[in-house]
Recover the amino acids of this structure.
């Protein structure tokens, strides 16, 4: 995690952005979780660790992180964007019952470099279904 943190901080610095305590704590949290939290979830989780943290700061920080490419914004639910520190191409599985987002490690598709003469920069693949936890709950 430390090398990933240093790389992301280096990108921020190269793009002329300062490191603040709120930026650092938000980035560390995103690097430490695989839960793909919303901005509100991040705020609620970190408010006790940094009492001066405001919702506006969380939203603005996430916007900055997304724009600089050190964090990905995942638009899976209308009005509830989720965030993750993982920026490499990968597949997401979204549970239609609990709405949790899971990273799928197995490569199930290859994103092409071009499509009909268009240059592809990045892409998202989302799979929807019922996660293993919800399936277990349903069978008991």
């Amino acid at each position: 995690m430390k090398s990933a943190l240093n790389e992301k901080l280096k990108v921020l610095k190269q793009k002329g952005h300062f490191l603040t305590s709120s930026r650092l704590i938000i980035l560390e949290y995103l690097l430490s979780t695989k839960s793909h939290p919303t901005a509100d979830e991040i705020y609620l989780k970190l408010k006790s660790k940094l009492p001066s943290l405001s919702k506006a700061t969380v939203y603005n920080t996430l916007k900055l992180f997304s724009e600089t490419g050190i964090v990905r914004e995942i638009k899976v639910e209308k009005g509830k964007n989720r965030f993750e520190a993982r920026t490499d191409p990968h597949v997401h599985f979204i549970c239609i019952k609990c709405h949790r987002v899971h990273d799928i490690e197995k490569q199930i598709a290859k994103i092409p470099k071009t499509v009909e003469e268009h240059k592809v920069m990045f892409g998202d693949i989302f799979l929807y279904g019922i996660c293993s936890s919800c399936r277990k709950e349903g069978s008991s």
